[in-house]
Design goal:
Shape: elongated
Number of domains: 6
Structural class: mainly alpha
Helix content: 55-70%
Number of strands: 9
Strand order of the largest sheet: 6-7-9
């Protein structure tokens, strides 16, 4: 018989093939990433779908709970009414347990935790209401059973219904009382008598409570006949009279309250008007409410004040808002409105406001012109390290001065604060070094006046050339340390004579200029001479005559170009001193005088002799120029008379530089 054999290897073992090298790509990393992205998208959609399904399920659960909750309330209500017939101790507690079981049944069908929490809140709220109501019934029944006295019950029920504010609640209490009487009094006649008495007692008590709270409603209920069966005629008369008394009392109280409200409205309006006058205006919508309240109060005089205040608040927003308008705008508007023949009420209010406030606006502007205008925007930013920004600000100030008809310095009071700190620390050279960033000397002096309005010496130093300024500051320090530095030993010597001569020339040339500015120029001359004395090491008596002349001219900021003086003091024929405009030679000045003379001849404003005959340009040599500031000069004769034009006005030369 053949024998079955198992499996046997048929070939010899072969060497194993080497494993191929693996890489992320060989494992499909790119494909895996794409699959992961697709999976994430599917997962996101699944989550959104899950959330929608969960919300739908929760909505269905809540709807189902509400139906069950309503049915449970009906059930427990019927149970409560049935048990009241035989209610005793533990009545409310038993109903509470029944309600708890109903609630557990309702909650047992809920799976959503949010719905379950809402349902628990609803069940708990109703449970509290049920226990309170049935507890009160249980307490009343306990008292009833204890007293077994209808009179006592009437008293208790009467007190209770007096506190009720709803006619249906009153009827419910009456029903409870009726049930009490039915279970307490077996005799039908006695029962009906007691019921009539209870009806009357509870009706009177309920209406008394209503009269206390709302006599008009109580009177309407009586007049409607809701209590005709319960009340006697005399009861109705008394209650109607009581209602009328209550109504009149309410009317008195209402009038008193209205008077108090009117007083409060008046006080509020006066307060808001005062606040606005103090600089804290209301918004227009707030003024609108105040105006409506005052109009309702009937105070016509106050209403006019409020309307004016509301209009004023609008003008404040227009003219003094975040971008306040300068005085020139207000002045032009005043001129426009004043020239109107038939102004509207609004225009009259505006004109009144402008006239009341123009002086204040002028004051605000004059205290800090640049700061005032910077609020409106458009001013180039100040960068003390960037001369271009300072030049741009100087040009802006010139344009603003022309546009507003008022001088506007290049910097505001706030922008001057860092320089003022240096000034107060007596770091004068640092202040002047910063101001040198303004190429225009007039801008420098204007900025210096903002930094220290009362320091004429600082103003003068601001227009000094650095080499003169350094010598003047050195001389100033030396004079402070040695006040006799410029006191010549020979008071009648050449030094004294030269110093007096050049000081006199300065004062004569500056006769039309502010006294403080004149003194600052004279001081600058003295400081320059003192600086020369210190630098040279020689006493003032030993100084050359040119030192005094240079001191006077340096005080005016002159300079030499190719050996020719520009600016400083000039001498008109007859040795009359005058101020040369900055950067002008005497020849330049004479030429400019002639050019302006010809221009004014053409305009008919050239000077004339006292007899009215015309003057030639050469005749100006018989007078001399007196600087008025800026580029303007009047002309004075040796007799002290000023040249005039044919119209009798001063002849004033305007020198173009």
């Amino acid at each position: 018989m053949a024998e079955e054999t198992g499996y046997g290897r048929q070939v010899a073992p072969q060497p194993a093939e080497p494993m191929p090298l693996s890489s992320p790509a060989s494992f499909g990393s790119q494909l895996g990433a794409q699959i992961a992205d697709i999976g994430a998208q599917i997962h996101s959609r699944d989550i959104a779908a899950y959330r929608r399904e969960r919300q739908r399920s929760a909505d269905e659960e809540w709807s189902g709970f509400q139906r069950g909750f309503a049915e449970a309330r009906v059930t427990i209500g019927e149970t409560a009414r049935e048990r009241r017939q035989t209610a005793g101790a533990g009545h409310a507690e038993a109903l509470g347990e029944d309600w708890a079981k109903l609630g557990e049944t309702l909650l047992g069908s809920l799976t959503d935790e949010g719905v379950k929490r809402r349902a628990q809140d609803s069940l708990a709220n109703y449970s509290a209401s049920l226990l309170e109501r049935e507890g009160q019934f249980e307490e009343l029944r306990r008292v009833e059973n204890a007293l077994l006295d209808v009179a006592d019950y009437e008293q208790l029920a009467s007190n209770r219904v007096r506190r009720l504010d709803d006619h249906d609640a009153y009827l419910e209490e009456l029903e409870i009382g009726t049930e009490f009487l039915r279970t307490t009094i077996e005799d039908e006649t006695q029962y009906r008598q007691a019921l009539k008495g209870l009806d009357r007692t509870l009706a009177v008590s309920f209406l008394r409570g209503r009269i206390d709270e709302d006599p008009q409603l109580a009177r309407a209920m009586i007049a409607e006949g809701l209590f005709d069966q319960a009340l006697e005629p005399e009861d109705i008369t008394v209650l109607l009279n009581s209602s009328d008394v209550g109504i009149r009392a309410l009317e008195v109280a209402a009038r008193r309250e209205a008077a108090e409200q009117r007083a409060a409205i008046v006080e509020n309006a006066r307060t808001q008007i005062a606040r606005q006058q103090g600089g804290n205006p209301l918004a227009d919508e707030e003024w609108q409410l105040v105006e409506a309240e005052v109009a309702q109060s009937g105070d016509t005089s106050l209403l006019e004040d409020v309307r004016q205040a509301r209009a004023d608040a609008g003008f404040v927003r227009i003219y003094q808002g975040p971008e306040p308008m300068p005085p020139s705008v207000l002045e032009r508007r005043i001129g426009e409105l004043s020239g109107m023949a038939n102004r509207s009420e609004a225009q009259n209010r505006e004109l009144q406001w402008l006239r009341r406030n123009i002086d204040g606006v002028r004051g605000d502007f004059d205290r800090d012109p640049a700061g005032f205008l910077i609020q409106s925007g458009g001013a180039p930013e100040i960068d003390w390290e960037n001369p271009d920004s300072l030049s741009a600000r100087a040009v802006w100030a010139q344009r603003q001065s022309a546009a507003n008809g008022r001088h506007v310095p290049p910097i505001s009071d706030i922008e001057a604060a860092p320089l003022r700190d240096l000034y107060e620390k007596r770091q004068l050279e640092d202040v002047l070094g910063v101001l040198d960033g303004f190429a225009d000397p007039f801008a420098r002096i204007d900025a210096a006046q903002v930094v220290a309005p009362d320091d004429a010496f600082l103003h003068r130093m601001a227009v000094m050339r650095p080499q003169y300024r350094a010598r003047m500051l050195r001389g100033r320090t030396a004079l402070q340390e040695n006040p006799r530095l410029l006191k010549p030993e020979n008071e009648l010597g050449e030094a004294s004579e030269a110093m007096a001569l050049w000081e006199a020339r300065l004062r004569q040339a500056l006769v039309e200029i502010d006294q403080a500015d004149t003194e600052a120029v004279v001081d600058a001359m003295r400081y320059h001479i003192a600086g020369s004395v210190v630098t040279s090491g020689y006493a003032v008596d030993e100084q050359a005559a040119g030192v005094f002349a240079i001191g006077a001219n340096a005080a005016l900021g002159y300079q030499r170009r190719n050996g020719v003086p520009h600016g400083g003091l000039g001498l008109w024929p007859g040795d009359k001193p005058y101020i040369l405009p900055d950067g002008m030679t005497r020849t330049d000045f004479a030429r400019a005088v002639g050019t302006d003379f010809a221009r004014q001849q053409r305009a008919g404003t050239a000077p004339v002799n006292p007899d009215g005959s015309a003057l030639a340009v050469g005749d100006l040599n018989r007078a001399y120029p007196v600087w008025l500031g800026g580029n303007f000069y009047r002309w004075e004769t040796s007799r002290g008379n000023s040249l005039r034009n044919a119209e009798g006005g001063l002849y004033i030369s305007e020198i173009d530089r």
